[in-house]
Amino acid sequence: MTQTHPHSDPDRIDPGTADGSDIKAVFFDIDGTLTSFKTHIVPQSTLEALEQLSDHGIATFICSGRPPAQLDAARRLMPHEWTGYVTMNGQCCYDDHGYQESEALNPTDIAAFVEFLSTRRPDVAAGFCELDYVYFNQINDYLRAMWDGLGKTAPDIIVDDPARTLTHTTYQVSAYVPAGREEDEIMEVMPHCRALRWHPDFTDICPADGGKPAGIKRFMRKYGWTRSQVMTFGDGGNDVEMLDYAGLGVAMGNATDDAKAAADYVTDDVDHDGIMNALRHFNVL
Predict the structure, then answer these.
(1) In total, how many domains does the chain have?
(2) Which segments does the entry list as coiled coil (predicted)?
(3) Smallest Cα–Cα separation from 95: which of 86, 104, 103?
(4) Which of 246, 238, 231, 240 has its CA nearest to residue 281?
(5) Which one, of 255, 249, 238, lies nearest residue 88 by Cα?
(6) What is the mean pLDDT of residues 103-117?
(7) Tens of pLDDT along 22-50?
């Protein structure tokens, strides 16, 4: 199943006439885009697409809500030489050659969040992301449900004391609560931040000016690309902004409704060669 969403933004590609010849870089979400929620592996057609993109001189990037310390399991499923990584929903961008740009959370907001967990909601599980270390205050049912859904791409769970935030820089936190009142209560004590949700069991919290487009822009500045030269693939709520921002945004057939609405094109699902089919549809490959 495919669907094209025409638009009139002059800075973006017209999906009805695009031939893919100007695409210089493609940014991919991981869970539900590169990897399947059903099989927990990367489809063979996607692995082939990644190698063909590199063979054509097109840069390939992971663009994920995961922190760098939690990419190893996913990378093992994709033996591919990535050009770079947008992690923590844009808060840390880096490559394997020494480049890195990052933005931390507001320390006052972090302190307020830790106080909130301690005094108001001690039952809530939360993850704290540093550049090279990720830990949780505790394990609860919401956290277990999320990890079970990740399958082979699920990283190890480490439990540590959130007081660590007082002496270590934190770039993103994840609160394992459903959407609605509980999330709203958290955001009230973190006014310099915003919530980005791609799963019903948790939300990522990043700086107010953060998000995947912020990370994509960092690499655009590094390489001198324009929006019309960038293509993105995603499936969840935290992909909405990058699908809308890129010159050509493609939502997977298994994507959420808001991701599909934001995309220029809806391809087949991850288990039915959605990435390869879209790249061929636009003659990128």
Answers:
(1) 2
(2) none
(3) 86
(4) 231
(5) 238
(6) 97
(7) 999 999 999 999 999 889 899 999 999 99
If you average pLDDT over residues 173-197, what whole number do you get? 93
The pLDDT of residue 186 is above 80: yes
Residue 175 lies in a domain: yes
DSSP alpha helix (H) spans, 192-256? 212-223, 240-245
Confidence of residue 278 (pLDDT cuts 50, 70, 90): very high
Residue among 55, 103, 54 at smallest CA distance from 83? 54
The two tokens of residue 135 are 């830990």
What is the 3-state secondary structure of 156-177?
Answer: CCCECCHHHHHCCCCCEEEECC
Residue whose C-alpha is closest to residue 138's, from 89, 174, 186, 183: 174
Residue 199: its pLDDT value, please?
78
DSSP for 84-138, written as a single string:
EEEEGGGTEEE-TTS-EEE-PPPHHHHHHHHHHHHHT-TT--EEEE-SS-EEES-
CA atoms of 19 and 13, how far apart (whole Å) = 9
Of the CA atoms within 13 Å of residue 50, those in its CB half-sphere come to 23
pLDDT tens sequence across 244-262: 999 999 999 999 999 999 9
Please indicate, yes or no, whether residues 195 and 265 belong to a single structural domain of this protein.
no
φ/ψ (deg, to 5) at 273: 65, 35
Q: Sorting pLDDT into bands at 50, 70 and 90, what band is 156? A: confident
Rounded to an integer, what distance in angstroms lies between the CA atom of residue 53 and that of residue 124? 42
User: Of 207, 230, 249, which one is at a domain's C-terminal end?
Assistant: 207
